[in-house]
Specification:
This is BOP1 N-terminal domain-containing protein. The chain has about 170 residues and is mostly beta strands. It is built from no helices and 15 strands.
Length: about 170
């Protein structure tokens, strides 16, 4: 594997599965079987900035420094199921909600986007991705916008942290 790691994740349901993102690639390793790169995901992105895995473990979102976000169905293909271009600036983080069908991205453009992301148990059914809301409220500071976003573990609430030294809670 070339390049320094940008993000790392453990798989939520398969013990020993480890996911590493470098600037351009995402690789899945099986630590229990000591298998290197059992899967390589081809993002097609210039530079990866963040990633998050769906609680079910079969879907992954990858954010980039070009404002694009890729959704991977890891059982389906090593190429993105869908690429979304919502932010004009770098995506700083992406997140899935633990129990609601929600995911979000935040960016240097001082916005966060919230999406409905329904994953079906039927493997013949593609995930349903619907943009829900653009959250504004942070101001830019030193050319930086929203630095991080996290969902509340039980409620459909999104917390964002901005370069303006403000933490916001969005709930509907």
């Amino acid at each position: 594997m070339r390049g320094l790691p940008v993000c790392t994740l453990f798989h939520p349901t398969h013990r020993g599965m480890f996911i590493i993102a470098t600037k351009k690639n995402v690789r899945v390793f099986n630590l229990q079987k000591r298998e290197l790169a059992i899967k390589k995901l081809e993002t097609g992105l210039r530079e990866i900035s963040s990633m998050a895995i769906h609680p079910g473990g079969d879907n992954l979102i990858v954010g980039s420094k070009e404002g694009k976000m890729c959704w991977f169905d890891m059982d389906l293909s090593s190429k993105p199921y869908k690429t979304l271009k919502n932010h004009p600036k770098d995506i700083t983080n992406v997140a899935f909600h633990r129990s609601y069908p929600l995911f979000a991205s935040c960016s240097e453009d001082s916005t966060a986007y919230v999406f409905h992301g329904k994953v079906y148990s039927d493997l013949n059914e593609n995930p349903l991705i619907v943009p829900l809301e653009i959250l504004r409220g942070h101001s830019t500071s030193s050319n930086r916008g929203v630095l991080d976003c996290k969902f509340h573990p039980r409620q459909p609430w999104l917390f964002t942290a901005g370069a303006d030294s403000v933490i916001k809670l969005y709930c509907h």
